[in-house]
Design goal:
This protein has 64 residues and is mainly alpha-helical. The protein has a domain at 27-64. Helices cover 75% and strands 0% of the residues. It has helices at residues 5-16, 27-62.
């Protein structure tokens, strides 16, 4: 192997070597999960608001 091709081979091997995955995660994925969770909580709160209000009022009235 001539002296010029050895650095080229090393550069090629470095460029093609597998690299560890980026650990930041999938940004669109966690944004979607966050938005869907907020929507689900909002929908459940809309359905259960009277019951939650009654529970809170009862609990606060029981404390003297």
């Amino acid at each position: 192997m001539n002296p010029v091709s050895r650095p080229m081979v090393r550069l090629l091997l470095f460029a093609l070597a597998p690299r560890p995955r980026d650990q930041r995660g999938d940004v669109p994925g966690w944004v979607l999960v966050t938005v869907m969770t907020a929507g689900l909580v909002g929908a459940l709160y809309g359905l259960a608001k009277p019951q939650l209000t009654d529970m809170l009022t009862t609990a606060l009235n029981s404390v003297h």
